[in-house]
Each structure stands twice: as C-alpha cells, then as structure tokens.
C-alpha cells in the first residue's frame, strides 16, 4: 500500500501495545499467585497497578489522535505470555520457578520497552509533544520495573534456585 504513512504506523503500533497491556494486566495476578518469593509477588502486584495506569495513558494517546481505543492482536505478546504459562506449568513447585517467572517477566518488560521507545520517537517526529510525554512516562516505568526485577533476581531468586537444586 503506497499511501500508508507514519501516522498510520503509529496508530497500528498503538493498537498493538494496547492489546498487549490488557493481556499483561490479566496475566500479572496469575504470576503474582505463582511466585514463591514475597518480593517477587509484591513486584508483580505493584506492576499490575502500574499497568492499569499505563492503559489509561494509552487511552489518552488514542484521544490525542482522535481515534477510539481499540487493540489489535499482538502475536509477540501472545507468544511471550504463552512461554510464561509454560514455565508456571512445568516448574510448578520447583525451586527454579521464580527464576523462570523473572525471566518471563523480563521478556515482557523488554518487549514493552522496545514498543514504547519506538512510539515515543514517532510521536516526537509527528509533532505530538503531549503523546510523547505520556509514552515516555510509561517507558520510564517499564525500565524501572525491569531494573527492579533484575535486583530481585540478583538478590535471592537465582541464588535459591542454585542452592536447592544441586544434583545429589
Ligand atoms: Fe506495561
Ligand atoms: Fe510492564
């Protein structure tokens, strides 16, 4: 299609991340329930609340471009979350469960970071300062979440998986 422009691509990508965020919102309580470490549980619960705010920010961006807030199936997040489900299933009650959950959650954060980074840049190019600011706010939140998860991984979870999972 020769007539597709950057604003079309921006709208499509906004629909992609809107779909992804709503999927993530449904998945975070499951991950919180599955997590063994109280710190990891708390991190997932905190991020669930943040995700609600991120969805509202996306709705504001849809408003700015004068479009209805509607998602578009995002195959990438479906795949990443399916892998997370697989971990919960296959590592249930195992010492490495939290390490697997952390890895799955960080894959989600990295996906979001790449999407928000791109959308923020495009919003700037398209001259939408307010949209760029909203997208940047979420981008910072996702980056901090990723760092928090790294902190939890370094502090305890991976160490515990190693300590209790040694071959006998
Ligand atoms: Fe998010
Ligand atoms: Fe996130």
Q: What are the defining features of this structure?
A:
single chain, 5 helices, 168 residues, binds fe (ii) ion, mainly alpha
Description:
The protein has helices at 6-34, 38-64, 75-90, 97-125, 129-164. It is mainly α and 168 residues long. The protein starts with 5 loop residues before the first helix and ends with a helix. One fe (ii) ion binds at residues 21, 24, 51, 54, 112, 142.
**What does the main sheet amount to?**
none
Mean pLDDT across residues: 93
Low-confidence stretches: none
List the bound ligands. fe (ii) ion
Radius of gyration from CA coordinates: 18 Å
Helix and strand element order: HHHHH
Helix content: over 70%
Shape: elongated
Count of discrete alpha- or pi-helical segments spanning 4 or more residues: 5
Instruction: Estimate what percentage of residues fall within beta strands.
Output: under 5%
Report how far the terminal alpha carbons are from each other.
Answer: 61 Å
Number of strands: 0
Structural classification = mainly alpha
Question: How do the helices and strands line up, and which of them pair or pack?
Answer:
Blueprint lengths: L5 H29 L3 H27 L10 H16 L6 H29 L3 H36 L4
Helix pairs in contact: 1-2, 1-3, 1-4, 2-5, 3-4, 4-5
This protein binds fe (ii) ion (2 copies).
Give a summary of the structure in a few sentences.
The chain is mainly alpha-helical and 168 residues long.
């Amino acid at each position: 299609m020769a007539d597709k422009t950057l604003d079309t691509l921006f709208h499509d990508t906004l629909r992609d991340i809107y779909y992804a965020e709503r999927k993530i919102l449904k998945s975070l309580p499951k991950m919180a329930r599955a997590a063994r470490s109280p710190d990891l549980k708390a991190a997932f619960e905190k991020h669930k609340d943040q995700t609600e705010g991120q969805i509202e920010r996306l709705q504001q961006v849809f408003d700015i471009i004068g479009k209805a807030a509607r998602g578009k199936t995002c195959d990438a997040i479906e795949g990443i979350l399916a892998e997370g489900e697989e971990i919960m299933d296959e590592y249930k009650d195992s010492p490495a469960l939290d390490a697997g959950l952390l890895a799955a959650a960080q894959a989600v954060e990295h996906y979001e970071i790449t999407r928000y980074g791109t959308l923020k840049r495009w919003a700037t190019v398209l001259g939408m300062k307010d949209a760029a600011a909203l997208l940047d706010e979420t981008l910072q939140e996702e980056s901090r979440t990723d760092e928090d998860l790294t902190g939890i991984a370094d502090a305890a979870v991976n160490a515990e998986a190693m300590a209790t999972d040694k071959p006998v």
